């Protein structure tokens, strides 16, 4: 009935998430409101790590890509499942660190890490640093020498795979700001240098081919390319690469017509490709890492809004304006991303209208979506936008000096605040 499996309707006809009435949540915490379903987050993490055990003999780790949705409570949930974390800035590292996350299970990313970020990562003892470029390698070598540590590193490689997704989130191809290119020999030259570095240990290679990918074939192709490179390094340099990080990017269902491959099938097929290629190339089976972000956070989340104005423009369209917008839900204005929406207090009604849900920001493009099937919505109704758990809160802003909404976690019929709603004083906190 709805895109996300954790949504239902109760006897009052109200939408529920994880068994909690969304209309009551709106009343208790106010709107706009981000709601995250802890049980679904846990269930998805388990689907990934159980499949890793089943199909890759447990020789792997799942690192949740915290850029999708990061707050201390999320880090605690991931840690309690025994999974790792991908962090991409000192802010994400700090969040994990302060949440008590086991930092040796953190991979630190970024295409332009500062010295401060590298030092902080070493100080808190991250598991490995994914080095993006040669100048970063040089700076990290110097910082590690000064701190008298020898961190594990991986190299981020561009495997040259076209993942058939939106251009803005396609990162595995040569024209990308991320990583070392294979085709040009840049990656091999960097590896040659790294194997002789005294203060870093080249422990693995990494690639990430894009985001919201529905097919498994590009992931299989990327794995083959990466293993071919690992074999070349072994044959030509006599150096064994022990880790292979295949990144994230697994697609999810935002709309009914979306049909992503199940994660289990992904892990089964990719594991069998990796095993077959290792046997063929006569290389050791590497430890495998994956970095799912969206697939863990997005389906678990919804955003609740209160309807303000309803504006019917005859023969053109009907605008339903809500009390949030691009500041808390930036993906439509960024990528034209589509969502399912439901009038939470009329969840049993048919969606008889097609409307444009507009935000309250001072931009014409500030929309939650266009042509969205919806129940008849009027002022005071609560609208739930589904599968918003990834790349919304984490990309939110204070545009128009709007306060960022609260984040609430629901679990087994109960709710709790994970991130407080910003106050007006938060808005001016750093103003002089
Ligand atoms: C290196 C890396 N790993 C993992 C991810 C997470 O991707 P997704 O949220 O699509 O799973 C990203 C997203 O940009 C990424 O750049």
UniProtKB/TrEMBL annotation:
Residues 44-298 form the Orn/DAP/Arg decarboxylase 2 N-terminal domain. Its EC number is 4.1.1.20. Its cofactor is pyridoxal 5'-phosphate. Residues 34-389 form the Orn/DAP/Arg decarboxylase 2 C-terminal domain. Gene3D superfamilies: Alanine racemase, Lyase, Ornithine Decarboxylase, Chain A, domain 1. HAMAP family: LysA. This is Diaminopimelate decarboxylase. It comes from Ruminococcus flavefaciens.
